Amino acid sequence: MLTQFSNLSVNTDGRYATDSELEFINDYLESMAMRVQTYEKIQANEEAIVQEVDEKMQELNKNDSLFKMDENTKIVCLRDRKNAIKYTSAAMLINDLDRLRDGLLIWLKTIVKAVGYDRFVRTHYPIIQEVIQEYLTPEEAKYILPGFQLDCTILGA
Known about the structure:
The protein is an all-alpha fold. 83% of the residues lie in helices and 0% in strands.
């Protein structure tokens, strides 16, 4: 949304915006209540979501078959998992996946590549998507899942 407003400001410099240029505002306003509801539901269930994702990841990684992590790395991954959920939820709330991609994800991809966690990410984000759907209605999920799919696509590439 912020990116769209910025583009609108640049594209309409010195003139009024057309109806079609303003359409994204109407679209957002129509979805705003559902976005807020989804955001609040994720916020209220964050700890349970994170814990369930962690349990599923540990199950997949029995005997360190996917990746090996020391305790410090596990703490960092837990923090990053919580941040991913928060930032993706915030991007969904304001309908600005471009800002998520261009801000956090491009930077985070550099770190993921540097430490060699591409495989971890390709496993991790689909599990977040699976778990988060257990806490949301299908209508709510349709707003948040594109953000987590973007996370997975960029970070796991």
